[in-house]
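Predict the assembly for these four chains.
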Amino acid sequence: MRDYVEIGIGREARRTYSLEDISIVPSRRTRSSKDVDTTWHIDAYTFNIPVMSHPTDALASPEFVIEMGRQGGLAVINAEGLWGRHEDLDAAIARVVAAAESTNPLELLSTAATTALQELHAYPLNDELLARRIGEVRESGATVAVRVSPQKARELAPKVIQAGAELLIIQGTMISAEHVATGGEPLNLKEFIGSLEVPVIAGGVTDYTTALHLMRTGAAGVIVGGGTNTNAISLGIETHLATAIADVAAARREYLDETGGRYVHIIADGDIETSGDVAKAIACGADAVALGEVLAPAAEAAGQGYYWPPVAAHPRFPRGFVSEAPTVLLENEERPSLETLLHGPSTEPYGYQNIVGGLRRAMAKCGYTDLKSFQKVGLSVR
Amino acid sequence: MRDYVEIGIGREARRTYSLEDISIVPSRRTRSSKDVDTTWHIDAYTFNIPVMSHPTDALASPEFVIEMGRQGGLAVINAEGLWGRHEDLDAAIARVVAAAESTNPLELLSTAATTALQELHAYPLNDELLARRIGEVRESGATVAVRVSPQKARELAPKVIQAGAELLIIQGTMISAEHVATGGEPLNLKEFIGSLEVPVIAGGVTDYTTALHLMRTGAAGVIVGGGTNTNAISLGIETHLATAIADVAAARREYLDETGGRYVHIIADGDIETSGDVAKAIACGADAVALGEVLAPAAEAAGQGYYWPPVAAHPRFPRGFVSEAPTVLLENEERPSLETLLHGPSTEPYGYQNIVGGLRRAMAKCGYTDLKSFQKVGLSVR
Amino acid sequence: MRDYVEIGIGREARRTYSLEDISIVPSRRTRSSKDVDTTWHIDAYTFNIPVMSHPTDALASPEFVIEMGRQGGLAVINAEGLWGRHEDLDAAIARVVAAAESTNPLELLSTAATTALQELHAYPLNDELLARRIGEVRESGATVAVRVSPQKARELAPKVIQAGAELLIIQGTMISAEHVATGGEPLNLKEFIGSLEVPVIAGGVTDYTTALHLMRTGAAGVIVGGGTNTNAISLGIETHLATAIADVAAARREYLDETGGRYVHIIADGDIETSGDVAKAIACGADAVALGEVLAPAAEAAGQGYYWPPVAAHPRFPRGFVSEAPTVLLENEERPSLETLLHGPSTEPYGYQNIVGGLRRAMAKCGYTDLKSFQKVGLSVR
Amino acid sequence: MRDYVEIGIGREARRTYSLEDISIVPSRRTRSSKDVDTTWHIDAYTFNIPVMSHPTDALASPEFVIEMGRQGGLAVINAEGLWGRHEDLDAAIARVVAAAESTNPLELLSTAATTALQELHAYPLNDELLARRIGEVRESGATVAVRVSPQKARELAPKVIQAGAELLIIQGTMISAEHVATGGEPLNLKEFIGSLEVPVIAGGVTDYTTALHLMRTGAAGVIVGGGTNTNAISLGIETHLATAIADVAAARREYLDETGGRYVHIIADGDIETSGDVAKAIACGADAVALGEVLAPAAEAAGQGYYWPPVAAHPRFPRGFVSEAPTVLLENEERPSLETLLHGPSTEPYGYQNIVGGLRRAMAKCGYTDLKSFQKVGLSVR
């Protein structure tokens, strides 16, 4: 059924597609973008826009988390980042930014900033500090989502839920329903999720089988995506997101059938840089997207114009790095508000701003007014 | 029948082709380019060359419209641009140009120029001013074509026809025979076109079905193309023009059969940058082309060496932007005349000048002497 | 049998391949490159290497023609270039070079040099001057090959043969066995070639049918190639040389069968930039190659480090332009001799020098020792 | 069975894939990278990591050879390089480095450095000097592997084995089991290898048939790869390593069957630049890899930050050239130790450092804990 090629005698490889390879094809009566509804319901929560933020300290300052809620989306706090390691969070962030800014512009990337991240993450995690900060955000009224790694989930999840997390994100570069380790007790996600009182979104996954197993653990949502794009070079593992989303959507159909109607949400995370990418991800089958670098220019983002994924802080094998946020056309101008990035108005033609407005227009031009039915829009590859 | 690939389990995408992907294949006895006839007949009008201009204020000054007629083509005036909004049109254009010129050359594009366009288009449309200007051009003897958007067609079309428009262009980024809107009366193009006294060219469309519906509205011509190439990034909707033209040509055959002989013209609009692109568009099935940026270097063009598509002026989600016209090799030289751009002679080897000369040579080398039969020339993809 | 794709509904395009797309695959016992024989026999002539030069004044100075003969190849003189138009040929060339050198380095190409070429070619052709120059080269003992255009063949061929041309090259961008023109007598190549006393090589062609027709005219060789690579942009006609050579080789087989053994040689011309390209062209089925720009760095070349194809001089629609010869790594060094370019030794790793040495090594590594059998070597596409 | 395309009438080419074209697809339960075993057993030797070094003087100083052993891999000494030609080896290397450093940075590559290499290799090979140096390294306790060319194998192999070589590498750009030469006695590898007392690794090969023949000679390992990537341009022979490895792995299966269980190792050599490439090579079927340029930044490498392949020294037709080692992000920093390059820790996100750590993580994320079973991991092409 799949499209396989024989790369050498007796060795096959599947042909896969990234978002960049595909395009949306309008072929129905056009609609007004005002008639488009972008509401996203997951578990008991409703969001006006199908947008989460990637769980990085480069985005999630308290102000950012609160503003994401106001703008209709969901910000995610990284429990294993700097929030619980440094009493003076601003100073910690400032150290990363200073290292990045001091880099010789001729260098491709800032190893000094990576070193700063590595050193800052070597500090111990102070549970009380983390809990206090989570609590403060919760008090603001924003929906609080906190990310833990699969390795630390058992230890940290109860604490962050206790502190106020309403949605738990269990996210590693790659996750499986049962991680196998010699010695040490593996995390059985099904049992673990069953023991929690809050809905869980887990990932990332990139294939049908792992996704189906993850759905069977009871997760409310599954994150599709295989981490940063340096994985393609450093690990030989390149996630082609269009294929991955479509495969996981097939797992969603299978699981719907198995369960007689339990719908697990798919959140696409990675490679999503513009409003067009958001539209394509949903067209492939995603229910929502997690945005990272594209939100980093926001005035409310913690990173002051810099971005890094959490894995950039790995002590021995960092993937990703500290980079300037894609302000694109904004030399010498102030950083835009998160509202502008998400809802416009914009003077920028590529969909780095007014991201949700772009999604609305794409849907309207194709004649769709809700996210679920837009998952069936025609696609082309070139 | 079509070529589909499975991008993920149960999700297909059609393989499509842009003009860049294809090449014309000569395989007949060669002819002299002097024997090539490029006449284009549409409705009661005959043009020596199969060339319209894209309806932008960056091209259509009164001088440009008149000169296009002299050179055998058809210029299109944008009824919703600056002609009807600013008594001092030159000053309005000059403001856009000044903003573009003041941009730091290191920036990728001029947001200041976009802001200027947005502000200038926020002025109210003065029907009398627009009518007066259309009338002045009409008096010069040039064939007058005026573009209205589908949204404003009902309101503006009678006025511009009254003012002297001989051809009405109803053009939006995407158009459908019936636009659906909650509240408000949709534009039924069939009834609307039937009520007009002038021939209508409508678009853009990119697929067979929409094109066929549009043909059934009574349009004399259909514009193929999905707007600016920033749509690919901002909306996820990338028009692959070779496929789109061929699909719409198939709709033309179907409609010919349905009607027992009514021939609807296809005008390709978008991605057409050189004489080679013009030849390819016709080889795919177009009867004529609409040229935009490639005409912007003309001394007669309004934009003084700058170009922008009408959608660059959108108040919240501009697509396209103000850019320097592709003078290519002409640093420190005067801008060429529209005659040189269309008919040469040229010192430029890529077909940015002597565009119709390039079309003639392509046809002659393939052994064709008229546009219609050249639609059957052999093609290759690499 | 061919590989076709449907680019749009009811419109097909053939999938074709350029030399860049393919690679030679070694799979036999390796040989020593010393055992490789590169002899090329065509008609009564034998050349040590299967190499002609492209008929441009940028290469063919008298010294260049003589040295090509010494190095085992065949230089081609352009009868319609500057040799017969300017008594002081050096001064004419110097004017082109000076225009090119005076160009602002930021410009993509030198329109001043194109203008110089256009003006220099506007001078009348002095038959006696041309004949005298051809005669002088003939006296040196080199084999003399002269190119005429199909348009001027009837007029000029007798004169250049009378002057000493031993091989006649009838070459235009595209040629067909019978060019059709309204008014004026078309050139019937079969009759014309039959009337000549010297062997004729004719081209360029890019398809099976035209090649077969051309073979039937009695030509000793057929040139495969569709002119400069600006044609792809200016005419929409891009020659994919690997496919073109293979198709014409199929015509050669057909014609061999038709005639019971008449072998027409195939000379590949265009896109051939390195020794690897020479090897690929022969692997696709060519018997020899015509080299242009890659020979321009030679100290003996007329252009003093600049190159242009003859079509760069077209008065209204030039294709190709004056460009710096690809000295590649030779900043501040002397220009290499033609001997070094063809036979080495070299300090350059990409096969821009020791071109024939590279061909020998490619053949040896694949286990072939003569050109004809190397036409069957395995190929891959990526 | 294979995937062939018709590039022209009657001429086919096989579709092949490079490492860059493929990606590893995780689809099993994830593991901890600590559980991954990268041990490589070949003949009587066991290495902790599946890594050889390419046999170039740019890497193999005595310190480098010894340190490679300490880090678990195998360094290879080039018997035909500078070790046996220059009493003062450091001075010889320094001359190459000085030539490279003196090159104008605007030049694409240093012909002066190539000239230096050519001149330094023109010195006679002093067998005693070579033997003395090999002996000194042997005394250090490191496993000693020495490379000879097929042409010189008969003459040099006994000497280097006598001097202490424990593994003999017979490596040329392309090798076949029997090289055919007019006059002179061909090297019959089967007889030759049978006569030696040490295990032999031979290559490079790129196809099934040659690999099978080479396996039948009794070689313990076969090197897959066709030399430097300038071959693609200079010879028209481009090795697509993913296909080549898979084809040779098929030959390994055939030979296993023929012999009832003799397992010949496959070492991939060429194009391997990052930890991701190492993982992909093994995923395609390799048992180990030979690393070249990626190890050149090591403080222990002979080339002091420069790299060249042995073929860069060819007297008439060099392929490859002297280039700066890919320090990538390390401007103004010290060169990393070989330990850091192989085992980390790293601040670099692309897998140019901590190469084995990257391999471990790739395997763990895919759920594999040993190299042999990782050869079956899923693959994709885009």
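Chains C and A do not touch (no CB pair under 8 Å). The mean pLDDT of chain C is 93.
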